[in-house]
C-alpha cells in the first residue's frame, strides 16, 4: 500500500512538472517582451529570471525540453506500474497518453496563454531554479546543439527587437499612464504611429486659405503679397486657382528677377487621398518640399508642404515669419484672443474645461456650437463661459473675447 502511494505521488509530481513546463513554454512564446521593459521601469518584483531568459532564450528552451522529458518519463513509468494492475497494457498506455496530452499539454498551454501576464513571472522563477539545479546537463545539451549546427553550417538566428504599433501603444499606456499633458512625447509617438493612415487632405492648407496670385501680377505686387501674408511661397495661376502653373519662392527675389516667368518653379501635383507617409517619401525622393493637392475632378483642393507633414507628427512648428496666436488678458475672467488659439493651451492659461469634439481651436469650438460662421458681436454661450466674436470675415473667425462665468 505504501508503494502504491509513492507511485501515485510520483505520477502526480510528473504531471505537475509537465503542466508547469508546457505552460511556461506557451507563456514565454506569447509573452510581449516589451512588457518586461515596462516592468523594469516600474521596478516590478520577480523579473530577474525573466530578464536572464530574455538574453539567453536557448537556456530557457533547453531547460523546458529537459524538464518536460523528465516529467513525462516520471509520469509514464510510475503510471504504468499503477495501471497494469487494473487494466491491460494497451489500455494503460492509452490512458497515460491521454492524461499527458490533456494535463501536460492542452490545459496548461491554453491556461497559461490566457493568463500570460499573471503567470510568467512566478513560472520563470521555477524554470530558473530548475535550470540552476541541472545547469551542467543543460549546458551540455546546448553544446551538442552548437556542434550539430556547426557541422551542418547552420547559423544561429540573431533576433532584433522590432515592436509593433500595438506594442508601442502598450509602452505609452503602461509606461506613462494617463499623464498625457505632462508627456508631450506621447503625442509625438502616437502621431507617428498613425501617420500612415492620415491623408494629405487632412494636412494641407485648404484652397480657401491659400495665398495665390494670378500670372498677370507684377514683381512689385508679388513682393507686397509676400510681405502682407508673411509666407515663403506663393502659387501662380492662370485665369483661376484650378489652373495653377507654378510656384514662386521668396528667396528667388534675391536673384534680381524682372518678371514672374523668370522665377516660376513647376509645382508637383498630388491627389488629396494620398497618405502623408507616401507623400513624405515622394518629397524626399524628388528633393521637393511643396505640392499642389488636387481633388478627384482635377480641381485645386489645397497646398501641402513638408512643414505640414512634420506638423502632423510633432505639432505646429511656426515658419520663419509666421505669427503665433495672440492672447491678451483684460481682467481676472476676460481674455481677447485670436480665433486660431489652441484650446489645450487656452485651457491651461484660463483654467476653463472646454468641451471635447472634432476641433482644436476656440474658433472651431464656436463654429461647432453655432453651426455657421458668426458675425461681429455674435455670442456663443456655454455652461461655464461665453465667447463674443470681435472680428470675423465671411470665411473665418479672426478674433474673439472669452468671458469666464463668475460662480
UniProtKB/TrEMBL annotation:
Compartments it resides in: Membrane
Q: Where are the transmembrane segments?
A: 60-84, 91-108, 128-152
- What UniProt keywords are attached to this protein's entry? CBS domain, Membrane, Repeat, Transmembrane, Transmembrane helix
Tell me which SMART domains the record gives. CorC_HlyC
Every copy of the CBS domain together lies at: 263-319
Q: Under the cellular component aspect of Gene Ontology, which terms does the record hold?
A: plasma membrane
The source's domain of life comes to Bacteria
Q: How does it sit in the membrane?
A: Multi-pass membrane protein
Q: Which Pfam families match?
A: CBS, CNNM, CorC_HlyC
Chief site of localization: membrane
A molecular function annotated in GO for this UniProt entry is: flavin adenine dinucleotide binding
What residues does the CNNM transmembrane domain cover?
1-187
Instruction: Tell me yes or no: is Transit peptide among this UniProt entry's keywords.
Output: no
By its UniProt entry, which Gene3D superfamilies does this protein fall under?
A: 3.30.465.10, CBS-domain (3.10.580.10)
Give the protein's recorded name.
Hemolysin, contains CBS domains
Species this protein is from: Caldithrix abyssi DSM 13497
Amino acid at each position: 500500500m505504501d508503494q502504491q502511494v509513492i507511485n501515485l505521488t510520483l505520477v502526480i509530481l510528473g504531471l505537475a512538472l509537465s503542466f508547469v513546463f508546457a505552460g511556461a513554454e506557451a507563456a514565454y512564446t506569447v509573452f510581449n517582451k516589451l512588457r518586461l521593459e515596462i516592468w523594469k521601469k516600474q521596478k516590478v518584483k520577480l523579473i530577474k529570471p525573466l530578464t536572464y531568459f530574455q538574453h539567453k532564450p536557448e537556456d530557457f528552451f533547453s531547460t523546458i525540453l529537459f524538464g518536460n522529458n523528465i516529467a513525462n518519463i516520471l509520469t509514464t513509468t510510475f503510471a504504468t506500474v499503477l495501471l497494469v494492475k487494473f487494466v491491460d497494457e494497451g489500455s494503460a498506455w492509452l490512458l497515460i497518453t491521454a492524461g499527458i496530452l490533456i494535463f501536460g499539454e492542452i490545459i496548461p498551454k491554453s491556461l497559461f496563454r490566457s493568463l500570460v501576464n499573471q503567470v510568467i513571472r512566478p513560472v520563470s522563477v521555477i524554470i530558473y531554479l530548475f535550470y540552476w539545479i541541472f545547469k551542467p546537463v543543460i549546458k551540455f545539451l546546448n553544446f551538442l546543439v552548437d556542434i550539430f549546427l556547426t557541422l551542418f553550417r547552420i547559423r544561429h538566428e540573431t533576433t532584433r527587437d522590432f515592436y509593433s504599433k500595438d506594442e508601442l501603444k502598450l509602452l505609452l499606456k503602461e509606461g506613462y499612464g494617463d499623464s498625457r499633458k505632462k508627456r508631450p512625447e506621447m503625442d509625438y509617438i502616437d502621431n507617428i504611429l498613425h501617420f500612415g493612415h492620415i491623408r494629405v487632405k487632412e494636412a494641407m492648407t485648404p484652397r480657401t486659405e491659400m495665398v495665390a496670385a494670378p500670372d498677370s501680377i507684377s514683381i512689385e505686387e508679388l513682393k507686397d503679397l509676400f510681405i502682407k501674408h508673411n509666407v515663403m511661397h506663393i502659387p501662380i495661376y492662370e485665369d483661376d486657382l484650378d489652373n495653377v502653373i507654378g510656384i514662386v519662392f521668396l528667396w528667388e527675389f534675391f536673384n534680381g528677377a524682372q518678371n514672374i516667368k523668370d522665377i516660376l518653379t513647376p509645382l508637383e501635383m498630388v491627389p488629396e487621398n494620398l497618405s502623408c507617409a507616401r507623400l513624405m517619401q515622394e518629397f524626399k525622393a524628388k528633393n521637393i518640399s511643396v505640392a499642389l493637392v488636387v481633388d478627384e475632378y482635377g480641381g485645386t483642393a489645397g497646398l501641402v508642404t513638408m512643414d505640414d507633414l512634420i506638423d502632423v507628427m510633432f505639432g505646429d512648428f511656426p515658419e520663419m515669419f509666421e505669427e503665433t496666436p495672440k492672447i491678451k488678458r483684460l481682467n481676472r475672467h476676460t481674455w481677447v484672443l485670436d480665433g486660431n488659439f489652441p484650446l489645450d493651451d487656452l485651457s491651461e492659461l484660463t483654467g476653463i474645461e472646454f468641451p471635447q469634439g472634432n476641433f482644436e481651436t476656440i474658433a472651431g469650438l464656436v463654429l461647432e456650437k453655432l453651426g455657421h460662421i458668426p458675425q461681429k458681436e455674435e455670442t456663443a454661450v456655454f455652461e461655464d463661459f461665453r465667447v463674443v466674436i470681435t472680428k470675423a470675415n465671411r470665411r473665418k473667425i479672426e478674433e474673439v473675447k472669452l468671458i469666464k462665468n463668475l460662480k
